[in-house]
Every structure is written in C-alpha cells, then in structure tokens.
Amino acid sequence: MFTGLKDYKIYCHSCMAFYLLLNAPPISYTTSEPERHQEYRASVTFVSSKPHSSSTDDIKPYINKRKYKLAQGKTKDYFTLVNGTLCFTQGTDIPYMQRFNARRQSNRCECHQGWHGIDCGQPEVIWRAFMASREKLTLQRRDRPRKIIHGLAVNFEVTLAEIILNELSQVVDLFIVCESNYTENGDSKPLYFYNRLMGGHLKEIQHKILYISMNFKQVRGNVNYIEMREYLWKESKPLIEDLSPDDLYVSMAVDEIPNSKALLFFKLYDGWPEPIAFRLRWSVFGFFWQHPQRTAIVPGGCTIQMLEGVYGDNPFKMTEDARGYQEVGSELPNHYLVIGDLNHYGGWYCNWCLEPRDIVAALQQSSTTANSVIKWDNVGSKIDVPYVEDLIGSGLWLDGTTQLLRKSQSRDSYFAPEYVLNNSWTYDSLLVNFYSKLDY
Fold first, then answer.
1. pLDDT tens track for 168-204
2. Are 248 and 146 in contact (CB under 8 A)?
3. Triad 313, 221, 228: Cα angle to 5°
4. Which of 25, 29, 284, 319 is the most buried (most CB within 10 A)?
C-alpha cells in the first residue's frame, strides 16, 4: 500500500524505468528552476558559444561590442538533383526515384507521404493552408534562403524556451530572447534563462541567441509580455547588420511552438501571402492532455517590410487585431494565412506546461484579470502544489471543471514537437503523466 504521493511517485518511476532507459540519450535531466548566479546588469547581451569547450569562461557574453551579421546560405543546399530534376530533399523519396524513374524516363519528383508540390517542397500544413485560402499563388524557389528572426519573452518557462530554440535551430537564423527580472505585478525574480545560459545550456546554438534583459518595472501594469515584445525588437534591431525587407520576423509566446517544416517553407520560397498565423494544438500540463473545446490560432509572422510599414515596427501590433480568436470553429480576419487545421496542426501551444510548483509560483506572481479564460470564481484560494498535481493526474484544467482529452503518442501524429520526442529522457514529464494512476 502507498502511504502518500511520494511513495506513489517512486512506484511510478520504477514502472517507467524500462521505458526511460530505452529512450535515454547521454544528456543530463534539466529542471524548470535554474540555479541562481551573480546579479546581471547589462541590458543587451550577445552570447557567443564555443561548442567543444566545457569552461563557462568560454561563453561569457559580449556586451554591445559588435553588430550581428546573419549567416546566408544557399537554397540549393536543401535540394537534390535526381535524374535531371531538382527536388526538395526532405520531402522526396530519392531512393525510389533513383531505382525507378531512370528506367521510366520520368522527371517527376516522387514525394514522401505528407509532402506536396512539383518539387515536393510543401509540407502538409502548408499545402492545406494554400488550398483553404483559395488564392491563386505563384510560388517561386528563392536563390538564397530568407533569413528568419524569432523573438520571444521568457518568464518561468525556461524549459519551453529551450525546446523552441532546439526545435527551430536548423531553420531560424537568430533568436532574440528577452527576460525581465520583474514579474507582472512588480515583484523581483531571478533571470532564470540567463542563468541557464551561463551554466552552459544551449552552448551548441548560443551563437544564434541575442539575449536582452529588461531590468526595470513595466510602466503599464500587468502587460509584461506586451511590453517585452516591443522592447526586445526595439533594442535588438539596430544590432542586426544585414536585415532585408523580405526577411521573416516571428513573434510568438514562449509556450507557442510553430511548426518547423512550415517555417522552412517560408525560408525557401516566395509568393505566399502574409501576415502568417498558426493554428496550434492546445496541450495542457504536457502533451498527454489536450483541451476539448479550444485550439489556439496565433498570429505570429510577417516580413520586415510589413512589420515596418503596416505595424509601425511594433511586433505586438502584428497580433493585436486578432486576439481572442481561440475557440474551435472561430476564424481570423481574411488577410491572415492560417497554417494548420483541426487535424494537421501548425504547431503546439503548451498551456501551463510547467512543474506544479512553478505553476503555483506563476499564478501567485501574475495578476488574474477579469477576461481570463480560467474561471477564477470556481478555483477560489485552493491553488497549491497538491491541488495542481491532482489536476494534472485527473486531467482537469485550472478552472477545476473542464475535463481534458487524453492523448496517445502512438496514435497522434502531432503529439509533440520532434525534438521533444527525440529527447524523451529529458522531457519525460511532458510526455508521460506521472500523476495519473491510469498511465500505469
């Protein structure tokens, strides 16, 4: 018999030992609460990495000492010439073409399942978005890849931030990460993400990270993330040397993970309409629960030219005219190209995907506004760690009434981002519900 939650957790982890050992790469487990380091005073920091060195001295930040020049690749690196036909490598069954097309004298690219287009360069979510838009498009392959800049603000969600950076690191050219040492209600807090960088995390991609600290209290009340989105772009843009009008800027919350295949398409092709929005799978507490009535439709990207000319160079205004469009069946204004539908998602929204203690801390250090999706009258004052653990185990949303849908990794092709699935040992708490008896 179990004498308490602690004994039950030990039993659960024992039951899962074989699963975890099978999926364990040589990487240490990360938690959502970093160690505290020395006080940070600079406002803008470039983090430079030397991947093969373990010394923290090698990843000390450069503070306003140089401009940042984005790398410029070649589009042809993403394509393969087969039997005289140029095909998108990732989306094409090249061995099949090499075996059969030469004999049949066919110059058609043979696409993998889930890929479309003449050169197999359109992933399923892009192809469906174009079909749904019913616009006549003239898509053209670019000579050079479009540069992509992704700006995000971090509070407690350090683990989710690391997932985003690793999931998109092969597509995004520069991540601008903004972190404040104040909460929405003005309380001071550690710079969690910065401390992780100084501890050696993400050292393989730190050369792509422009870190900005917002070390002053917000002046507009509980609009922390709104002001951070504006601030990070204002501070970082002058430091980027080679921005082009057709480069893509992505502005999404740290718990919103866009589909990397969709971003890669935007990187390699011209002729698509903008601005871009993503229909995200609404996961709760982890990828094992899904909200039954909601899907997140998140405006998230446009070119630098549109950002400057239409939105006054303010990333938040890019999303302002479409806030609240999150109910299933709701639609965005017609000028958005929406990536993803109810069966093929444009990414993941991982709602409250934190450790229970961090969920409680986030709720305590943020304001509960009247238009919150959580019914706070039903919750009352019972939010504590055991209460949150019970919600995760039973699959109830934070309102204490909405029953979440149980999802299966084996049956759901959009269960979680690829990086999370490939690193299941590190992110096991997001893949397996350790608080549910039914999972064992």
1. 999 999 999 988 887 766 777 888 898 888 888 888 8
2. yes
3. 35
4. 284
**How far, in Å, CA of 379 to CA of 284, rounded?**
17
> 74: buried, middle or exposed (CB in 10 Å: 19+, 13-18, 0-12)?
exposed
What does the DSSP 8-state code read for residue 57?
A: G
Q: Are 155 and 183 in contact (CB under 8 A)?
A: yes
Ranges 80-94, 189-203, 204-218: which has the least confidence: 204-218
Q: Phi and psi (nearest 5°) for 145?
A: -60, 145
* Number of other residues whose CB lies within 10 A of the CB of residue 90: 15
Structural domain spans, the chain? 5-69+144-439, 75-137
Q: DSSP labels for 211-272?
A: EEEE-S--SSSS-HHHHHHHHHHHHHGGGBTT--TT-EEEE--TTEEE-HHHHHHHHHEE--
Q: 73 CB contacts (<8 Å, ≥6 apart)?
A: 144, 145
Locate 385 and state its tokens. 């760690």
Estimate the crossing angle of helix 356-364 against helix 385-394, to 10 degrees. Answer: 120
The reported pTM is 0.80
Nearest CA-CA partner of 273 in 339, 319, 317, 331: 339
Distance CA(347)–CA(278), nearest Å, equals 7
3-state secondary structure of 17: helix
What would the two tokens of residue 206 be?
A: 């730190």
pLDDT tens digits, one per residue of 373-408: 556 566 556 678 888 899 999 998 887 788 999 998
b/e per residue 96-119 (b: at least 16 CB within 10 A):
ebeeebeeeeeeebbbeeebbbeb
Q: Which residues contact 10 (CB under 8 A, 6 or more apart)?
A: none
